[in-house]
Amino acid sequence: MRIFLIFLFFLCNVLKLSAQENPRIDLSFEDATVEEVMMMIEDRTAYKFFYSEEWIDDSLISGSYNNEDIETVLTEIFNATNLNFFILNDQIIITRNNVIYDELPTSFYPERSADTLANDKPVAVSEDSEERNHQPVFYRESGTVAAEEIETIYIGKEDKSNPKNRFILSGIVTNAETGLPISNLSVVTASGNQGSVTNEEGYYELELPAGASIIETISLGNLDVKKRIVIYNDGQLNLSLDESFEQLGEVLVDSEADRNVRSVIAGVESIDVSQIKNIPLVLGERDILKVATTLPGITTAGEGAAGYNVRGGKTDQNLILLDDAVIYNPAHFFGIFSGINPFTTGEVDIYKGNIPAEYGGRLSSVFDIKSKDANTEKFVGEVSVGPVTSNVALEIPIVKDKSGLMLGGRSTYSDWILRNLDEESLSNSSASFYDLIAKYNHKFSEKTSLRTTGYYSRDVFSITSDSLFRYSNLVFSANLNHKFNERNEMEVVVSNSGYQFDIDYESEFNNNFTSGYNINETEAKIKMNYRHSSAHNFEYGLSSKLYLVDPGEISPLGSESIVEPFQIDREQGLESAIFISDNFKVNDELLISAGLRYSLYAAMGPKSQNTYEEGLPRNESTLTGSREVGNGEVIETYARPEFRLSARYAFLPDFSTKISYNNTYQYIHTLSNNTTISPTDTYKLTDLNIKPQQAKQYSLGLYKNFKENMYEFSVEGYYKESDNILDYKVGAQLFLNENVETEVLQGDGKAYGVEFLLKKSEGRLNGWLGYTYSRSLLRLDGEFREQRVNNGDFFPANFDKPHDVSLVANYKLTKRFSFSANFVYQTGRPVTIPVGKFNPGTGQLPVYSDRNQFRIPDYYRLDLSFNVEGNHKIEKFAHSFWNISVYNVLGRNNPYSVFFVTDDGDIQAYQSSIFSIPIPTITYNFRF
To answer: Where does the TonB-dependent receptor plug domain start and stop, copy by copy (predicted)?
Structure first.
């Protein structure tokens, strides 16, 4: 074989030496195809081209050459194609992707020295030649049936002057039916040595060795594909995947098959919105955020409570984002229903451990909720009709394959139900809500896209005959994404979020009034993504957010009201940040995500800011005066660095450990003396007297998958320390208080716990079992008595519930019929109760225990449902789904709260419950 190669090289050199000198040519053409230009060259020279017509496309080129040699002309006209050429005498041989070699580089024979090859004289390569390190790519097609079943795709154009032997393969993965990008999909090599996960735009990137490799996609909900890639240079391969209809209804919550083991970020949960329809919830309503509370580390203070407590954090310490815009109150009807429409939601990622550096302003978690992009090919929709609410979502193509409009709306007819009840107190009540969402997505090109979202929600309720409550969210966001090249991408986000509530009070006396509160924030953010290499992926950018807070106002309602108008001055604050992070792949086993966020907050005027004596409690006696600050002037600034670090080490492909640390700062506080978040809660900005909250969290976890990712197990422990946590003094008046800093205290907090999750994502029986042991403690201490609560010792937070168990299961009888169950057990939350009484002569008064010294009874609940899917025929107008469920099957009278009232001199204890009997519902859904 070696003698034959030497003879071949010798023959090529002889032929090359005998070839005529490259002639020079005059050539000019405009908007011509490559094939037309080759014909022109044949007419003007003695050269003949040899090629396959299927290699030549119809793209048009233009050029002008004056006395130019033929090699230069051919190099330029083939520059934008995958074609190479080889000149042999008067013959020009065209090849696609690869190069014809008439001599091999020195490094082709690694076992022989350059001197030895020089003595053999088959080639002549100089020591400083760039070709010295280039390895030719040889690929031999196999004739076996197994090999022919895998499609072979050639990528890139071989370049002898390029010394690289590894190249970047990238592309976009889309849904074959809808054309929408598929995110969180794995693209891996068959050997398992390389892998990538698609981002929100469906983009992936792999580094492959020169030559042949097998790649395959791995996902739930789509048919996997396998391709043979022969790569000669950097290039693109876009993939279009068909849906896998057999997966419908089997996996309830999906965070990708092996993401829990493989990803570097610790403490992140993902919810597959399309698969939560089987979970039985109250009144048959699909509820994304209620499903989140069945996952370890995420809970609420009680049934029907708004707000979420994540790893021992307060409800105001969660950043809830809808398409990058903040939702201040994500609940309807006191928390019984979620404010997020499940039919219009695409993805939900919850960061409860390590929070990426791009997010800031909250201590505990980030709920990153992304709405669906509208279908740009055909009109589709989904409708749900339940006993209390109805829901509709429509996707309307505007410009085929480029733009679409998604519309969604929900409403309740509870007012109509209440008016038809015989009970007078209920028939005179009012309780209704609705929410609307619209999203427009437009694809300008393969590199540039725009998404805009508008959201509005409104609640109106009147439980008592004298008060009417209204609250609403108004949100807008615009996201422009531009891809400069394969390595650089930019995202620009502009958003505005507003929340307000109003109270109308009417009584038999002349003290009727209307009162309200409003907060608004506007944010601009630029985020850059730089894919430096397969080892480094950088994200960096900056953001700025302007807060405008109207702390409250009251005005008379009606001409006869004796209420005096009153309004508290507006608060303003500017929160800005710069951030950078790097996902660093040390090797296949060790991944590191390191980030730095530097935040700067300025409390701004116009404002009259009280000042108090240093080191003394803030009250009227220690008030020293006030500072008058003009519009736009700075009252006080706070600048803080925030570190984010997470590392993953893979012992085995299906077994890893993760460790993380992050510190966070929060410049906005909730003012509330309720147990849970309330529609009438107000927000207070950090200023001269109230410092920003801060927290540090450490976590360590183990993650293991079994039976090809069918079973997932994880255990994760955490410890969190907090400072400057805002709480209230006993008997505090928080609303419509000009000097609210005198009614609150700031103290320390600590939270710790361990979380277990066992999940089965495939098979007839699927679901998950979660258990959390956690504690959340606060300490309010100071030199003076009024600064201390419980003598300055740590005491349980209102939402401290050590034991939390959740079981969600779905059993498929057939492809159409299934049973589902949801079981919850929680330790009763803390409560402060009377432990004695005394009589000052005017009646008995209670003596209360230390704050949160006792607990209400434990909470447990079982829900069951029977689910009926419509038939799976492809050619039909709509796909239907029935859900027949019973909420609280056991009829458990779970206490929501325990409170005490002095009645005729006696102290009476009362217990309130939300749902104390089984609640059956039937919900009908259809998708078209």
So the answer is: 266-362
